[in-house]
Description:
By secondary structure, the chain is of the alpha/beta class. Helix 17 links the parallel strand 13 (385-388) and strand 14 (409-411). The longest helix is centred in the first third of the chain and has 15 residues, at 46-60. The model is unreliable at 177-185 and 553-558 (pLDDT under 50).
Amino acid sequence: MTIAQQIQEYLDKAGITHIFGIVGREASAISFDENQKTKFVLTRHEFSAGLAAISLSRFTKSPQVCFATIGPGTTNFATALATAALDRYPLIAIVVQLETYEIDYNNAHQCVDGVSMFKSIVKFAHEVKNPEEVISTIDKAISMSMSQPIGPSFISIPIDILMSPSIKIKESDKNISNISYGFKQNDSKKNLDGIIKAIKTSTNPLLVVGDVALKLGCETAIKQLAENLNIPVISSYSAKGVLPPNHLLNYGAITPYMDSILKFPALRSIFSQPDFLLLLGYDLVEHLYPKLWNIGNPKKVARIAPYPNNTPHALHLDMDVVCPVEEGLKYLNENTRKIAKKEIYDISSLRKRIKLMEGDKTMNPKGVLPNQVLGVLNEHYNDYILANDVGLHRHVSAIFYRANKPLDFVTSGGLSSFGSGLPLAIGAQIANPKRKVVAITGDGGFHSNSGEIETAVRLGLKIVILVFNNGQSGLIQRYLVMGKKKINKKITVFHPVDFAKLAEANHCQGIKIDNIKDLKPALKKADSYNGPTLIEIPIYYPNLYVNEYTKNYHINKK
């Protein structure tokens, strides 16, 4: 047995089910057919390999692996590793390095110092120097990635070490079974008691849920706390699904753009009345900024999270409980049973506005409205996983997508990686082979990574890919509109692309629709097709959602 074979066996024991990536000349040392349990998934780009592994990790709640070759294969991992860092995923990136006797950074052919490049992004980075440290390095990488805040690890292994004979694993290296979510605990009981007192004395408390809480499986405890005390719940858009979509206490996912999209004072209707916010697994990277809730009543703010508040300059807390979120919730649930239920405040006008826009079937000559697409999807599938790329469309999805289960909204909420939609959908479908997975992506994000259509076809994944085509980078165009009177469209507008034909060229079913009434028949056609389907939709964002509800924008009334 070689080190290469031993690595695969060890990863299998650690719960790694798939390895995503691209192999180079090291194929002579490792071909990934040595271990039949762990499946190798060939992607078209290393970025996609990392994103697919991240998405799989979301559902398995365990580390997953991506693999790359020497030089450019390594550097192509940069955005994937940064995504794992800011989106809090335990991604293990394994790359190959030149033979130990040829390593000469920036001088030898394709030789780069990956450790130095990535050490500011990852939790752990190391280049193996000898066969004896390979397994202990992998074990440490996994352990570090699973410590809070969760994040990626990077391992570089020279080719000659991969080809070396296997070594006997020391007992001290057999720590796989002890992998757990680590945390630094402060005086949690004192602060938890302070939170209970704040709930008792508050008039309108509000629970604010971040994605970390869902990754830790805390949704049942959150629901119990909300229902016992009659406290409404909001979430970052990554944490959609913490409560069922029609639950009375589900006040929805928050996006900074929701007032403009709805043409309604949504943020004020949610945040003006609360006087106490309890943040559960909250993370500042998730696009739910404190400035969004600093509306109306003065608020006390408390937080329960598995790691300290690293951004005190932006997030001001009255109480910060650092402990496993599930333990903090258990304590609250056990000690708030006798507290009288709160009266929830009314957001029925906001709910009516969302329902009205979701059910809109009017024909628009300028294109299909994105809220109409979400309305049809919700009606047709009822239960589905949504992998959403980055763009204006994601903020629409955050409002209108009905996430029936925790973790079902898959998106890069932290780094907001452009082109992430399709590889996230691939990972989600591999993790959930019996569920419907839909990808929503704009024409810009999709075409930046459209080669992965072939990956989805080759894997036989029945993903439905919706390409919102407006021929431009809509979100960037919006920023231009807000900042300037004269718009330079050359920096945002694309040449027309026939995405349905592009899909067909990759042996993917391609459908192009012209209006909203054609979407449901297209979805039915996708359902009966044995493979992925791409549906190209001419999308229209009304005035790029720049209107009287857009902050810091003054309408030209001439």
